[in-house]
Amino acid sequence: MSRRNIITLVVMALLAVLPPVFYLTGNAFYLDLATRLTILAIAAVSLNLILGYGGLISFGHAAYLGIGAYAVGIPAHHWLYGGLESLGLATTSGYVQIPLAIGVAALFALVTGAICLRTKGVYFIMITMAFAQMMYYAIVSIEEYGGDDGLVIDSRSELPFIDLDDPLQLFGLAYVSLVVAMLIVRMIVNSRFGMVLRGAKGNNERVVMLGFNTYLFRLTAYVIAGAMAGYAGALLGNFTTFISPEMMDWGRSGELMFMVILGGTATLVGPVIGATLFIVLEEVLSSLTVYWHLPFGLLLLAVVLFGKGGIMGMLRADKEDSE
Fold this sequence. Notes:
This protein has twelve helices and two strands; from the N terminus they run αααααβαααβαααα. The chain is an all-alpha fold. The protein has a single domain (about 5-250), classed as ABC transporter involved in vitamin B12 uptake, BtuC (Orthogonal Bundle).
């Protein structure tokens, strides 16, 4: 078994065991922290598909998180206060909310991706951020859903055999979802589709000359990543029971990018490690000083500048040096 696979198994085993142990010993805070980082890790894994393996630097990925969260909050809001009954969207059923989150996020990714992928480089970065900000301001302008103040979700999604009001069951669903997301990405990148996607990242012109329509391959990956992030958003809405436009602000997209880069791009477990370190450092430093953003930013900057390939890249470098 390779060193990378061992690291993946160890990280996922610790993430599966430690939070429930902390919760059962009276430390519920750590379970909440683990649930949050697990959900954000799903979004980071989805971003890694297009960023790490596809070379597409999207600065608007948090928009899909927000879309997924509002796909839970809006039907729950109308279920309580009325409206949208004719469309069957006034509900707290997870059978409606979760597919809605995935579907709307995928549709938004399809429409915006079809335009964004006509550009490249810094233009691609800017246009993805522009579309995310358009969605941000669109939600802010809708007063019925709280506008800039956000919207409280009074009732979590109802699913058979799973009670999302139980913190352990919610964490279990998030953890299983993370494992499934990682397996999906692994299957994609190791398929012929993934080979074309990675080849386009390295030399797009050469892959096009081989007869592949890399635009369609990239657009498909972009939609898949958006749908996965939308699902993560649905979980995040159920976890926080409060949603706001801030979820889809460009700063949140930057945080997701940092998670991927911190852990290591184009690696299976890198986004999970990055999300874990990001959330833990944020909690620890913010408990020490109100000026925690400065040391936090310096630490991230040091990893980006001196840790080639993120944490996973540093581990590979250590292995090569020992050999």
